[in-house]
Specification:
The chain is an alpha/beta fold. It is built from 10 helices and 18 strands. Strands 3, 4, 5, 6, 7, 8, 16, 17 and 18 form a 9-stranded mixed β-sheet that branches. The chain has a 7-stranded parallel β-sheet with strand order 9-10-11-12-13-14-15. Strand 4 and strand 5 form a beta hairpin. Helix 3 packs parallel to helix 4. The longest helix is centred in the middle third of the chain and has 13 residues. It binds zinc ion (ZN). Zinc ion binds next to loops.
């Protein structure tokens, strides 16, 4: 088929106009398969139309091939079959690809300039869209005293949506986490109430894992404080927490107590496949307490990170039906080059481990949305923000590392192709949304050389 896409730039500005009436041709053989070229028109009731994808939207019970998703004014307009390409300013062929809500990563660290931070944050926009992620939830990098700085510097200046758990230690994720005198319940609650659209709960982490207990550093000081904040604000809390044997006259600090007694339904344990968590017993069986906790509505979140995803725990757990409620990365400066990389890479590990794709999507979209009381996110309902992931599922031989220096083999891999955030294409390295270069007529800006001359 002959290519007949014509583009010209208006004198006024930026819109690419197409004079073609919809003639298309196949792209050159892409590694990702043959698709039709993007169709671009001057007008149309939709801004973008994603044509012919396999839509998985668990919130709306959709798992169906050959579906179209229409976007206008940054929102989802319609999901259905045979929505005409001529109704869109830009019709993008996504046949052979999956189309799902943009992913919600329940655990990241994106407050870049926290003084004394025990880790290193990442720049949110640089590591979100690459992995299909459109909402990042910062897991307690900031506390009540540093939250406004976080909001001003990062949250308000990022294209990806950033929500946050506030650390119960008022300075944030610094050495203050070791000092119960910094656990300011009142300030944490007041901060959450001042920013109800951003703050989704409270966080504790890293507290007193090996040092001897004393009258200040009691076993449950952080858990008791964060639970009180959670109850007062009516918000969930997220635990990063270590079990310990009895010592200094204090009784054992057990995982069972945390997940079945100290916590409320809706609270979250992040890092639940970590080495220090009793996931698999001596008999090779899943700890029955975690099933009981899941039954009471306690949430187990991946929090992969640099130390919390061990195949020795993951595979037997998944085989016996103990599967994370939500998938998250715990992205920080020490895992972006592996073993985490980004959200879709962690999702690939679940798919490769045999968890059905639809469930993996649910664990990365509507489930985390509900956990943080933002059910307006993580779905493709009409009127929802047009946060969309478009990806391929590759079949072949793939290997995936864990956080303890081992790997697992699998035969699937998810490969992100395009991410839309609020209706805007933020990630498209394979050019689904742009024309073939030879189709752009001479005289277009594309053909301007470095000296500013048109060819
Ligand atoms: Zn973390």
């Amino acid at each position: 088929m002959k290519r007949r896409n014509f583009f010209k730039r208006t004198m006024a500005g930026s819109a690419l106009l197409s004079g073609a009436a919809g003639m298309t041709a196949s792209s050159p053989a892409l590694a990702q398969g043959q698709r039709k070229d993007v169709l671009i028109r001057e007008s149309g009731k939709y801004d973008i139309l994603l044509k012919g994808g396999h839509v998985i939207d668990p919130a709306n019970n959709i798992n169906s091939k050959n579906m179209d998703v229409a976007v206008s004014d940054g929102k989802i307009s319609a999901v259905g079959r045979n929505i005409p390409s001529k109704d869109a300013k830009k019709a993008i062929d996504v046949s052979g690809l999956y189309v799902t809500p943009g992913f919600i990563d329940l655990h990241v660290h994106v407050m870049f300039n926290l003084k004394g931070f025990v880790g290193r944050s990442i720049i949110a926009d640089d590591h979100s869209f690459t992995g299909g992620c459109t909402t990042m939830v910062d897991a307690g990098t900031a506390g009540a005293l540093s939250f406004e700085q976080f909001k001003k510097n990062e949250i308000d200046n990022s294209r990806v949506r950033i929500l946050a758990f506030v650390n119960i230690a008022a300075p944030g994720m610094t050495e203050a986490e070791q000092d119960p005198r910094t656990y300011d319940i009142q300030k944490a609650v007041a901060t959450a109430q001042s920013y109800p659209d951003i703050i989704v709960g409270f966080k504790v982490a890293h507290y007193w894992t090996t040092k001897p207990y004393d009258s200040l550093h009691t076993p449950w000081a952080n858990v008791d404080a964060v639970e009180e904040a959670g109850r007062k604000a009516g918000l969930p809390v997220m635990f990063d927490w270590f079990p310990r044997p009895a010592s200094e006259g204090y009784p054992m600090r057990s995982y069972r107590e945390l997940i079945l007694e100290k916590s409320r339904p809706g609270d979250i344990y992040t890092h639940h496949y970590a080495r220090h968590i009793p996931v698999i017993g001596e008999d090779g069986k899943v700890n029955p307490d975690v099933f009981k906790a899941q039954k009471r509505g306690f949430i187990f979140d991946t929090g992969h990170g640099a130390g919390s995803f061990v195949w020795r725990n993951v595979i037997p757990a998944i085989e016996q039906g103990f599967i994370s409620d939500t998938i998250s990365t715990d992205l920080h400066g020490k895992n972006t080059n592996g073993p985490v990389i980004n959200m879709i890479h962690v999702m690939s590990k679940y798919v490769a481990s045999g968890v059905p794709l639809e469930r993996v999507i649910e664990m990365s979209t509507i489930k985390p949305a509900r956990v943080i009381n933002h059910p307006e996110l993580g779905n493709l309902s009409a009127g929802a923000s047009a946060d969309i992931a478009v990806f391929d599922q590759l079949k072949g031989d793939f290997e995936y590392t864990d956080t303890s220096g081992a790997k697992e083999r699998g035969n699937k891999k998810l490969m992100n192709m395009m991410t839309l955030s609020g209706g805007k294409v933020e990630f498209d390295p394979y050019g689904l949304s742009v024309p073939y270069w030879k189709d752009i007529p001479k005289g277009e800006d594309y053909w301007v050389n470095q000296s500013g001359q048109f060819f």
